[in-house]
Amino acid sequence: MSHPASIDGEDDRIDTTKKSPLGDVPFKPPQYQYIPLLEGHQEIRFMTLLPGEKSSPIRVLLTPVPFPSNPTPEEKSHIPSFEALSYAWGSEQDQREIYVESCYGTESLNVTRNLGEALPCLRYKDRSRIFWIDAICVNQKDPKERSQQVGRMADIFSKAKGLNVWLGSKSEDSDVAMDGIETMAEKVYYDYETSEICARRELVHSNWLNEYALRPFKEKQFDALLRFFRRSWFERLWIWQEVYHVSSTITLMCGMRTIPWSYISDAAPSLRFSDLPWEEKDVEHLYHIVSLCRTVKQKSRWQFGSLIDYTRTCKCSDPRDRIYALLSMLPVDENLKIEPDYTKTVSEVYRDAALAELRFWRRFDLLATVEHHGEGLRVPSWVPDWSIPRNANKLFAQYASLQTKAEFKMPCANTLEVVGVMVSQIERVEHTSFGPTLQDTVKEIKRLAGIFLEPNELHGDKFRAFCLTLITVTAESYHPPWTMYISTARNEELLRDVLRGRLDRRTSFSSTMQSFLEWVAHRGRGRAMFLTKDRRMGQGTRAIIVGDFVAVLWGCYYAMVLRPTDSDKEYQLVGGAYCHGIMKGEALLGPLLNGWDVVETRPGNGMGYVNRETDVFQYEDPRLKDVNLPRRWKREEKANGRVVFVNEDSGREVSSYSGRDPRLTPEAFKERGAPLQTFQLI
């Protein structure tokens, strides 16, 4: 049995100044046995790393300490100053032994090799150092304690006096990489507000920045940077929470070499947007590192659906942590009421998380990320399997069901009953096959055009449908138009150039054509294009097969693909899709007429309507102009142009912006004779 020791290593029954006899006396200490923490005292354990030479065995003390979330001055005085450690666990099969000292002797504790290599580099020769390290301070074999402690990690990291990031041991070129990062960070910085790479003040009038953008690193430096950013720490899921919550200094360690986090925050975007010959997987990887840096810098809080999608490629040893590692980063007002519980199965955790999101937001957009391909967990078809990577990039949100709220019931634990409109059945499916080069993309676009267009069909509605199905979003998708994207007309010109064969033998492309081709490949890679019986083109998951149906569900921005079963009402959810001609509410209200279009307002103000002929903008759907309100409702227009609706009985005020326009409820549609259906997703 283990007993607590003094946290400062000065318990009079332990002489921590003496060298450990472990290196001299061959004996096998018993395995360390954790003493349960006192939940009523909100205890956590701290690890005191005792001093020693780098080559001597690792000796630590483990001490439980009350750690209230909002301590009184008296309680705070009993909490020691401590540091936290962020690292990649590594394989559980490759372990190292450390030794826990207590007043009753020495016991052994196994840690992974990577942590075992970090501890000697963190240890001082002449004094103790206090840490919180999850693998040591939490009894990983106790699901109840693990659940409780994981829920406290944000609080622990936010109160640490510093965070040490262990990237791994020194390699033959790690110093070369860190030298390059230091050089960049000393000369440029990244403005996360404007997304611009800027020269430091002393270099504003020099030409260094332009020269850097044009001149790649030498091959040796570039290879070193590649290997540096491929280190496993950068792939970890938990680092998002750990780095996000630290309010003090963050130091990255590679062996004994250190650099501050700010260097990574400035250097990663500079590398991402340079002309260096990164492989596509490295570009994507750097993009996620830049997203992490931006989140930390701006203390951004993403909604659950966005956050879990951002981190989908990150790695964690327990698939339940796909959910639990992100909870503390959600917006304060997004209380999904999920508590870490490692007694639940992975399938239960994912189902409960999906339901919590549905109930909180009353939207089905999370379900559009479903990609079931026959492997992975046994979960209901409407539950995303977050344990496996996505095959394709996330679809851009459209407005297939406008800003309606989801209507659903749970007839039983795994069945989701939803309301929607059946659009059409799929009669042709073609998997996309985008290779790694731009010329591969040219060939694939021409191949797909040969299937979905007539020969030399370079204008007209069908050509535009094909173009928009490939790209899904243009500058005019936003109001005002967003020049970050290519305009619809320019996209069509670029597509015509591709189909006319003007690029067939080219090895270089204009910047606009390159952006077009990269975007088409980015949107279409890992997907399938399809054609419905009513001749609508679409793009969705590769799991789509002939005979599936396209539907629009209340409370979902995307079209959804459903697969019929032997039951008339039961369907399997195949995934979200772009289906041309129904992404602007046409399945609910019919086509937009007289020049009107649906747009996303900028910056981030939701959906609106713009007339392309008159440039008039409004928030209310013009198709609802002559639709009567249900009884006991009245319409009011605010000074900012927003339209609200007031219930005359309760005085309750709702708006179309919040998705509660009383004319867009399923009940209102049924009263108007709309062909609504109930689907049971199993």
UniProtKB/TrEMBL annotation:
Residues 590-624 form the WW domain. Residues 1-26 are annotated as: Disordered. It comes from the Eukaryota. InterPro entries: HET, HetReg/Transcr_Mod, WW_dom. This is WW domain-containing protein.
